[in-house]
Amino acid sequence: MKPLLTAGILFSSLLVTDPGEGAHAQQKFDQAQSLSLSAGLYAASGFGTNFYTCGRYDYFIPGGRYFVEGSIGVGSLQSKVIGTVTKARIFTSDNLVTYEFTFSYDYAPGGAMPYFTFGVGGVREGDETHFAGVIGLGKRIPLPGLFGSNALGIRYDVRDQIFSQAVNNSDPFIAHNIVATLGLQIYF
To answer: By three-state DSSP, how is residue 97 classified?
Structure first.
């Protein structure tokens, strides 16, 4: 839980970062598309927190306030608690694969306010796949002039993947898997 809290504090501090609203900062959001590679933490409800990586493709609606996104991510479901206490195997493997299709609204593309996102996704834990609702927030921060390019930026995202889960034939419960990532974004 401590790594997730540390990541949350880091991402919260980025909320107050204002890259400026000059022509270079706004120019990035006039681009039609972007690709990003992000890494961070995945907190699987009741199973622990592990390293997570994902790739995202964004299509920006002109003006940059609205965009749609498709993403795929991979991680692990290893749990020290479950492994130490019960020695049980909950899933057939420790592999985690997620995908999301979201719609996002960014009130201030060049400002300090985060964007809000919602959509649908899937969470594959071992051999079990769950349909999920996705909500979250994040921020795109352009880095004009970095390495002589106006097409680079960083982004952070915090998302909640919400779905119904049953473990070992127990009663289903609502799982909230929290994803916190930081990554590099390339606009084109």
So the answer is: strand
Domain ranges for the chain: 2-14+34-187
DSSP string spanning 136-181?
EEEEEEE-TTGGG-SSEEEEEEEEEEEEEE-STT---EEEEEEEEE
33 contacts 187 by C-beta, under 8 angstroms: yes
Q: For 39-61, what is each residue's pLDDT tens digit?
A: 999 998 877 889 999 999 999 99
**What would you report as the CA-atom Rg of the chain, rounded to the nearest whole angstrom?**
18
Match 């049953």 to its residue by tokens: 166
pLDDT of residue 85: 60
* pLDDT of 28: 44
d(CA 26, CA 5): 32
Query: What kind and span of H or E run contains 95?
Result: strand 95-105
For the entire predicted model, the pTM comes to 0.78
Residue range 2-14+34-187 in CATH 3.30.200.20: no
CA 94 to chain centre: 20
